[in-house]
Amino acid sequence: MNIVENIKALLKEAGLYHSMGLLSEAMGKYKKAVEMIEDNEQLKSRTNLIDGISKKINLLEKDMHKVEAAADKPEVSAKVQDLIKKLFTVAEDKNQDAVALDGAIALAKFGQHERALLEFKELLAKDSVRVVAAKNIIRCHMANTSVDAAVDQYEQWLSSDLFVPGELNKLRFFLESLMKKEGVEKKLLPAETPAATPEPTIEMPEVEEAEIAVLEIEEDEDHDDEVLDINSIGITLDSGPRKGDIVELDVSFQSGNVISLLITHTDTDLIELFSVGETLHNIQFYSSIAMFGGSGIVDTKTHIESGPRRGDYSIDLKVVGT
Amino acid sequence: MAIFNIKKREIECKIVYYGPGRCGKTTNLEYIFKAYKKQVEGEMVSVNTEGDRTLFFDFLPIGLGKIKGCEVKIQLYTVPGQVQYSSTRKLVLRGVDGVIFVADSLEVRREKNMISLKDLQQNLKEYGISLFKIPLVIQHNKRDLAEQGFPLMSIEQMERDLNRQLKVPSFPASAFTGQGVGATLKECMKLTLKSLQKEMQIG
């Protein structure tokens, strides 16, 4: 192949590659053709040939620039966005909120951040997906807008009552870790656990001393409701061979401030201890939430005549002072 | 992952056309869309960017009718070939059942073919799929350009470059003229359905 044919072949190839969108390959062929022309002084109309190729190179450069300048993930039509959601939603859950969340995540993954943000924001109203939706809002801001936008969003949530402190702290850790990855070292304000609000003081109107007597609430002898549910009691034996021992007894039944205890017929020390009408001091009452000391009056003492506990004793003890 | 709808007796699987940028993946789908109208079940969707380059994917649903009493539906996808769309390629590959690797026969694209095959292997690996185990067919595209005197690699060279270890079925083709397009797809569907059948028997 002579030099002219070589150059023609190179230009043909370059033209084909350009038309196929193989832009760097086309550029390579054009440049090689120019080199060959420059190296062969005997060629006629060299300047014209090089000018012609330069024009083609200019067009090629424009196309290369357009491709480079095209956005990586531009916003596409709503129809295509719907298709993305349909094709790339993985959740087959029957939970509609989880499916909606997955659809919005698919949009975000394909760079459709504006619509994804709208959908994530709607999902903030759904308890089951609220925190995940919020994390994705942060992620969208980081990817699409800026770190500042993500921080602003977090601060808005911080001053609203949309999230409880634990959730806000999760979001803070999440945002801080994303910022760290971006090389931004910034500490965000943590969510504060609300301090126990002191009960408001009821302002009483000023009254005359005489009236106070009238306002005095009569002491109710039966404060049944005030006694906690008692699971068991501990009694210190103060006589007999086991004097000083603490005996723990389970409460079999409770009605208001009266608790029922079962004592086996073999536990004679205890049976003797519980005499009807007697007040027992230094009793430990154990409830599921507290332990407290107090006194009790033996209300009844019943010998069980039948059933599996036949022969044992049932004691009703009235809790009087705690 | 194919979807089996036992109630409807329907199988839906996913075949992805993979390959370097501008190798002819979209042209394959366009040809199928035109030439197999009876099987096509809807519009072909292309999401393109500057210079008709695939931005996200192309999508074409086709139906094969009933096979052993089961309705078989296939979703065909292409991936964007440009290097910068790696994350999108990975997204499109999720749940893939079969792959058609479209290789460019132009000599100048030799290296790009190999890079793209490596990229496919890596992306599949991230989903726990082996390139050696997935139903795979290689298509040596743009063979028609030889007639116009353009420098193409020989089939032997392309096989050595891409199929030496894989040893999967391969077809010379021209997506532009349609030559080899149907044969490539048919082979991939056959391998995919066989693989799914095997999976179902094991399961």
From TrEMBL, chain B:
GO MF term (any one): GTP binding
Domain of life: Bacteria
Keywords: GTP-binding, Nucleotide-binding
UniProt xrefs under InterPro entries: Gliding_Motility_GTPase (IPR052705), P-loop_NTPase (IPR027417), Small_GTPase_ARF/SAR (IPR006689)
Keyword Coiled coil: no
Pfam families associated with the record: Arf
Gene3D superfamilies the record matches: P-loop containing nucleotide triphosphate hydrolases
Name of the protein in its database record: GTPase domain-containing protein
